[in-house]
Specification:
mainly beta
């Protein structure tokens, strides 16, 4: 089992920055890819960014150039640095883990473990 706990959400103004963190506990994250998803009211959960155990990354088009995903395998943590935030980035952000080797998981059903989420609100 893997437990994931997100932190770092909050209220920020248009153009501001936030850094989300996800701390994992339980079993080792060896070979686990980590992802950040978000879900706005009335919308489907969407992948923002993902990172493999080895550090390969994937970004949604909406995140490219503004968000950076990183991980510290020794500390079993993953972060999402979000810059130039926009009101449309407002959502609950979730950390997720997937045991997948050789390809970055980009589908919701590929992720096995999920955190409870942290709210990000960007005011206009």
């Amino acid at each position: 089992q893997v437990q994931l706990v997100e932190s770092g959400g909050g209220l920020v103004q248009n153009g501001g920055s936030l850094r989300l963190s996800c701390a994992a506990s339980g079993r080792s994250l060896y070979n686990y890819a980590m992802g950040w998803y978000r879900q706005a009211p009335g919308k489907e959960r969407e992948l923002v960014a993902a990172i493999s155990y080895g550090g390969s990354t994937y970004y949604a088009d909406s995140a490219k150039g503004r968000f950076t995903i990183s991980r510290d395998n020794a500390k079993k943590s993953v972060s999402l640095q979000m810059n130039s935030l926009k009101p449309e980035d407002t959502a609950v952000y979730y950390c997720a883990a997937a045991l997948l080797i050789g390809v970055l998981p980009i589908r919701v059903d590929q992720y096995e473990y999920w955190g409870q989420g942290t709210q990000v609100t960007v005011s206009s």
